[in-house]
From TrEMBL:
L-glutamine binds at Y116, S172, K178. Pathway: Cofactor biosynthesis; NAD(+) biosynthesis; NAD(+) from deamido-NAD(+) (L-Gln route): step 1/1. Catalyzes the ATP-dependent amidation of deamido-NAD to form NAD. Uses L-glutamine as a nitrogen source. It catalyses: deamido-NAD(+) + L-glutamine + ATP + H2O = L-glutamate + AMP + diphosphate + NAD(+) + H(+). Deamido-NAD(+) binds at N369, E398, K508. It comes from Wenzhouxiangella sediminis. The gene is nadE. Residues 2-242 form the CN hydrolase domain. The keyword Repeat does not apply. GO terms for molecular function: ATP binding; glutaminase activity; NAD+ synthase (glutamine-hydrolyzing) activity; NAD+ synthase activity; nitrilase activity. The active site is at E43 (proton acceptor), E43 (proton acceptor), K110 (for glutaminase activity), C146 (nucleophile). SUPFAM superfamilies: Adenine nucleotide alpha hydrolases-like, Carbon-nitrogen hydrolase. Residues 512-539 are annotated as: Disordered. This is Glutamine-dependent NAD(+) synthetase.
Length: 539
């Protein structure tokens, strides 16, 4: 039985020496502890994924080549398949190399280079054109890379080159429903080739992307494995019986697949890795007594621990007593330290300073935004003074329609719920409280409000959030037209207004903080609309 180890691990972008050390340690563990014949690493494990414009720097590519050469010289007693970028003259390839007994015995260059959604691989690489099949312990093993699994050609070429099993090295970022899509794709490749396939994915947060692990396998008979652990490093090991075509899952802990727990783990991993990988030890943010900041706080405490989380209450003349009570209740509930800094003196000073130039004008959103920006100023001051990572607390629904204040509640270095629609904010809050109480009931039940003027609620200017979120999903994520959305039992006037707000708010979003992507089309890398544009959706 061929024993294959799979390093479902976190390889940091740009940290070539650290990744090489991690790879060597995993090789030794697979050989000495698991008795594996072969260990496979994810796509571009040596440099981390995606390295983006780092691969355009000759020094970076030389460092990667040198590290691979040094690794090859230290691999003995086990075969290793390692992902890395490769230069050949003025061409660059997304490659894996097969290491055995101190040498590189074969290299495979990725065939299908994705250039959609968050991917820009054609900017950096050229496609390969030859399969790689290597015999290990009597079994012919074919190798493909990530997007090659989503199209039939590379797997078919591996089979035609004699492969009896295919391993796929991936750096596949999460979106809701990704597990089901992977299972479908593996079933399609199996149906076309008749071969068993192993799908290895990496783990970890990288800017907006979260790589969720959830590695999978499908045997010769079409039986799919359970997904491997979610958002967690794991050394997996399977035995492959050449005669029966079945896998023996020797070390394969099952990962969770329920929707809300999965999303929660992805949001946690994204926040934790962005914070720690960028050299921060703690986070700071405004805690208002509302649902968005409450959810942000619960995610932050789960991701980093209460001792690394600093919520700040920043009341003004419009802050209700209930808001202060609920914020204090959550602070006590989760055991964090806190600060309580009134913005009223700042607000009064700003109004006084602007009184002469504002004379004769009516109050409008300007006075509201002064308060939001005063809060942003306080958060940034605490960040600068004490080294906390400042968190923005806006959700996707607000960011879509511009119901957020640039340099105010949008102010921050990371935005943990940036891709979370308001309806999902409530779902996640309800689910998290089934694990242990983390968000006060009163926060979930009260009408959402920015509390920037008397008796203000979000629904003063916006349709109910279930209506709004359905329009945003269709217009932003599914690219439906106004007419198509209106046909789906939506009020056309409301749809037109929301579509106009989405387009008009592009300049705000472009200046917002990054946050973890959980949908197929997040604001930022996924959706790239011009700020300056004369186009308006006519339906």
């Amino acid at each position: 039985m061929l024993r294959i180890a799979l390093a479902q691990d976190d390889f940091r972008v740009g940290h070539i020496t650290g990744n090489a050390g991690r790879i060597l340690a995993q090789i030794a563990r697979a050989r000495d502890e698991l008795g594996a014949d072969l260990i496979v690493f994810p796509e571009l494990a040596l440099t981390g994924y995606p390295p983006e414009d780092l691969v355009l720097r000759p020094g970076f590519m030389r460092s990667a080549a040198s590290a691979l050469s040094e690794l090859a010289g230290q691999v003995h007693g086990i075969d290793a398949v390692i992902g890395h970028p490769r230069a050949e003259g003025d061409k660059r390839f997304n490659s894996v190399s097969w290491l055995r007994d101190g040498e590189v015995i074969g290299t495979y260059d990725k065939w299908d280079l994705p250039n959609y959604a968050v991917f820009d691989e054609r900017r950096y690489f050229v496609p390969g054109e030859a399969p790689l099949v290597v015999e290990v312990d009597g079994v012919k093993v074919g190798v493909i890379i990530c997007e090659d699994t989503w199209t039939p050609e590379a797997a078919r070429a591996a089979r035609e080159a004699g492969a009896e099993i295919i391993v796929s090295a991936n750096a596949s970022p999460f979106y809701e429903g990704k597990h089901a899509d992977r299972a479908r794709i593996l079933s399609e490749r199996h149906a076309e080739t008749g071969l068993p396939l192993i799908y290895l994915n990496c783990v970890g947060g990288q800017d907006e992307l979260v790589f969720d692990g959830h590695s999978m396998a499908i045997d010769r008979h079409g039986a799919l494995s359970e997904p491997a652990p979610l958002c967690a490093e794991a050394m997996l090991c399977v035995g492959f019986d050449r005669e029966s075509g079945r896998f023996d899952y020797r070390h394969w802990p099952a990962g969770k697949t329920e929707r809300l727990p999965v999303v929660w783990e992805v949001l946690k991993r994204g926040l934790r890795d962005y914070t720690l990988k960028n050299g921060f030890e703690s986070v700071v943010f405004g805690l208002s007594g509302g649902i968005d900041s409450a959810l942000t706080m619960a995610i932050a405490v789960d991701a980093l621990g209460a001792e690394r989380v600093l919520p700040v209450m920043m009341p003004s003349r419009h802050t209700s007593e209930l808001s202060l009570i609920l914020a204090s209740e959550q602070i006590e509930m989760l055991g964090t330290r806190f600060e309580n800094i009134s913005i009223e003196p700042i607000y009064q000073a700003q109004l006084k300073q602007l009184a002469e130039v504002f004379e004769g004008t009516r109050e409008n959103f300007t006075e509201e935004n002064l308060q939001a920006r005063a809060r942003g100023n306080v958060v940034m001051a605490l960040s600068n003074k004490f080294g906390h990572l400042p968190l923005a607390t806006s959700n996707k629904s607000e960011l879509a329609v511009g119901y957020s204040t640039i340099y105010g509640d949008m102010c921050g270095g990371y935005s943990p719920i940036k891709d979370v629609l308001k309806t999902l904010v409530y779902e996640l809050a309800e689910w998290r409280n089934t694990v242990s109480e983390a968000i006060p009931r009163g926060v979930i039940e009260r009408p959402p409000s920015a509390e920037l003027r008397p008796d203000q609620t979000d629904q003063d200017k916006l349709p109910p959030y279930d209506v709004l979120d359905d329009i945003i999903t269709r217009y932003v994520e599914q690219d439906q037209s106004i007419a198509e959305i209106a046909e789906a039992d939506a009020d056309e006037k409301i749809v037109r207004r929301i579509a106009g707000m989405v387009l008009a708010s592009e300049f705000k979003r472009r200046q917002g903080a990054p946050g973890p992507r959980i949908t197929r089309k997040a604001f930022g890398r996924d959706r790239r609309y011009p700020i300056t544009s004369g186009w308006r959706d006519s339906g």
